[in-house]
Amino acid sequence: MTTTATRPDPGRARAAIAAKTLRTDRWWFPPLVTFVGLTAWVTYATVRVFMHRDFFVPAYHYLTPFYSPCITDRCGDAAMFGTPLPSAWFIPDAAFTLPFLLLFRLTCYYYRKAYYRSFWLSPPACAVPDAHEKYSGETRFPLIFQNIHRYAFYAAGVISVINTWDAIIAFQHDGEFGFGLGNVILVVNVVMLWAYTLSCHSCRHIAGGRLKHFSKHPVRYRFWTFVSKLNTRHMGLAWITLGTLALTDFYIMALAAGWWPDLRFIN
Length: 267
Description:
By secondary structure, the protein is mainly alpha-helical. Helices cover 47% and strands 5% of the residues.
């Protein structure tokens, strides 16, 4: 005996469901947590960037990443690349790098998902209606600029090199090798920043994209394999680096403000 599958009649109307979603779990909780977390971090970072003080510890050459590289007249000994900008209150002391870092994070594939859901409610969760009537994707202004993420990645790589140099020279104390808790925090932050940067989807494409035969490019294949493993942790690294950046900045601010001395292990 054979049966014939019946196709739904395209002319029939969909079931009349008054509820916006049939989900009964706490679907609203993850976007709420994301909203609170990102808002708190952006508020803290904005306040710190425009404080224009307590960003450098000359004794150990601790420079917070929020002010690196420091390029205004306020920088003093923290300026390694000169001071081409005036010390106006509305100019960040790291004005050459902060816009690129912001662009890298804003266009990041994970952060797009995070703030699309938590700030724009577009959509806030799976199987929950979008708060907007229309959605044109990332093909029109202003979201079309999300496609420059791969170029922001290059800038983020250069900035990571600068942050790495900041962490290295901080081991010099009075012309000799020195090592303290601040060094540990700076190094951990740099390692996490590199992990987040290299786990970027654009980095994975640069490493192995358009290759037809991995066997002919063993170096790129190994790097692509390494980046692919990091890529699976991209979301976690995105949040971890927000935490390490805030912790590093807060610790250096505390030292610069004289709240407590640095815990020194050597010299």
